[in-house]
Structure formats: structure tokens, C-alpha cells
Fold each of these.
Amino acid sequence: NAGVTQTPKFQVLKTGQSMTLQCAQDMNHEYMSWYRQDPGMGLRLIHYSVGAGITDQGEVPNGYNVSRSTTEDFPLRLLSAAPSQTSVYFCASSRRIGSSGNTIYFGEGSWLTVV
Amino acid sequence: GQQLNQSPQSMFIQEGEDVSMNCTSSSIFNTWLWYKQDPGEGPVLLIALYKAGELTSNGRLTAQFGITRKDSFLNISASIPSDVGIYFCAASYMNYGGSQGNLIFGKGTKLSVKP
């Protein structure tokens, strides 16, 4: 998992609390995204960004905010945590989706439990 | 929305056996990717496919981009114990308006060792 750093690795939140999952990449990648992984569901796209200042919603964006003020960082904010947001979160980055020879890198994951 | 149907959901392997798994969809994609995920880790890219009909190998792994662009398979030859894990297919479509496409994932194939 070269170059994509996620923090924290583990977090327990109470319902209603807010928090930010941090993601940073040092590969000067244009494209960054956040996924959540739930048992039997694979990975589902929450939000993505094609460059600094540009973000868009994925498949499951409700309850999450993102921003991309720099190329390197793409934090994911949970505004008011709910038990349904208990999941494993993965940040990913790539030079560009779909380009021949492109590689998509994932972070090591953040395990979030909302009680 | 678009979906990837990955099969089988799980399989048991005995060392030395060949393994096959596939992903199908009713949608057309222009990129197919295969990832492996070990417990507690993020997905790691195994093989990337960018052209219909493309057959690509990475050691004992071989993957093909289906000629219809709606499917892909992954074969593992002469399996070894460290092959256990969860394998995900992922596919990307390009928005022809110029914006980036996004990855969607299959639900995974879990490889375990035969008892």
C-alpha cells in the first residue's frame, strides 16, 4: 500500500459525535476517493475528488462530508455518527481512473465503531 | 445502478489446485481490476486490464478482460497457502463528457484452505 496514509486505524464513537478520518498521499495523484466496506457488500464509494477543490458524491454519500484543499489530503468527516456508519473505511488514490497503466492505491483502512 | 456479480462467493483450495473466479455485469466497462485483501489490510492491486480481450499474467495469476467488456475472470494456478484471502474484481467506466469514471466493486470471493 505505497503512499496512502490513513488515520486513525481504529476509532470508537458515540452516536451523535463527529470526527474526521484523515487521508494523505505523497504520489501527487489527482484522483482520491473514500470507500466503506461492510460484510457481504464489497466496497462502496462514498465521495471522490478528481483534483484540488473538486469533490463529488459516490454511491453512499449521506452522513459524510469531504473537502480537497490540497492535492495531498482528502479528509472524510462524519457529521453526526450513527451506528449504521460502523464500517471499515478505505481511502484510495490514483493518477487517473481508467488510464492505461494507471494503478490505484488503497490505504490500510480505518475501523470505525459507532455505539 | 451498475453492479458487478462476482462468483463464487467462497471456495476452499488445496495446495497445488488451480482456482478460477469471475465477474459479470450487464454494463460495459473500459477497465477491469483484480484486488486481493488480507485480513486487517487494504486491497492490493493484482492485475489491471484496459482493453477488451486483453489477457494479462502476474506470476501464477492470469486475468482476462472479456471481449464483450461486460466480464472478467481471474485464474490462480498451483495455489499455495498464502493465496488465501478475499479477491475483489472492480470495474471502471469513463464518463464520455470528460469527467473521471469511478470504480465499482464485486462483493468478493473468499479463498480458504481445505480442512
Amino acid sequence: QLQLQESGPGLVKPSETLSLTCTVSGGSISSSSYYWGWIRQPPGKGLEWIGSIYYSGSTYYNPSLKSRVTISVDTSKNQFSLKLSSVTAADTAVYYCARRGRSIDYWGQGTLVTVSS
Amino acid sequence: NFMLTQPHSVSESPGKTVTISCTGSSGSIASNYVQWYQQRPGSAPTTVIYEDNQRPSGVPDRFSGSIDSSSNSASLTISGLKTEDEADYYCQSYDSSNHAVFGGGTQLTVL
């Protein structure tokens, strides 16, 4: 059974860079059938797609976040990562990593990242 | 920017049928597949419909999806409502640049 697990700091200071890693187990991140991505959900609000990456390194970013987002993949570790720069309180959210196949069919449990000094 | 608009909330009684709409802002909603996700409090979303009208294994056939090109909208219909269906539901599709787009979510109350 495929599992995704987010890891990274739960507290980030304003203007700093948020960094999260998603570790994939039970399957290979190098499968040609899937994209791997990040989605966030501010407390009490809806889902926002951040971006996706293919195992080859091709990326797709939400235009509203594109200038601050970098998603990368490490196939040797079966991991992919998110960096979001210059964070503000508006970036406080639960961050999910996920696999996109015919739908976003596998999600991590989510990790709350709070932006505060 | 392509957007998907959902009603903020809907409510219905157990045993009844409810339909949640998802309207595309531009272009044809039929151009890209629509997915529907169920999210219960404190949990990650799960897929209830993918590719407009396909149900993942394990999702009861009380859940169905459809596309109406005339209104540029997708719909999720849940029949025989159960209290366990109470959750937030999100539609999702893609814009012309392959960027995923979510609707704002609909809170379903079964009372």
C-alpha cells in the first residue's frame, strides 16, 4: 500500500523559507504514470494546489505562488520536496503531499505549518 | 484564471438525494476531467469520483458524477443520504496549462 509522509518544521518565521519533504513508501516515485505534488489548506478554508513534479523533474506551479515556490525530486531517496520562500502569516496552513494519477489518489496525512515570529 | 465555483453549503435529510454543483468560469468544463473529493474533519481528502463519473473501488454507488456542458458545470449526486456522508466536498479539474484547480468546497449537512 502506497504511503506518503510529510516532514519538516511546524513553525517558520515570517520572511523565511518553508521547507517540507514528502517520503514515499510502498511504491516508486519514478513511475511514469504519476505526478507528485503539494496542496495546502489554511485553517478553516479550502484546498489550494501549490504545484506538481514529474519524476523526470518537469514542474507545474500555481501561478499565484510561482515566484516563491520550488518543488524538487530525489528519486534515489524516493522523496520530493517543497520550498516556499518569503513566507507570511497567510502561508499558515496544513500542507499535504499527494500523488496525482487519474485523480489525486493518495494523500499524506498533512502537516500544519505555522508562520509566526 | 480558470476557477471552479461551488455552493458554500447544502443540507438534506437522511435517505434523500442531494446534488452539489461545480461551475467553471471560462472555457468548457468538459475539456478536462473533473474529480470530487470528500473531506471529513481532521482528515485528508479522499476521492469519491474521478474522470467526471468514475467511482474508485470502495466508494458506494450512491455517489455519482456528471457533466452538463450547457451550464458549464459538473455535479456530484449522493442518493440515499447517510449521516456518515456529512463532510466537505471539493471539485477539482485542470486549466489549459495542466494546473490543478479546486473549487471552494461545499459543506454537506445531513440532518
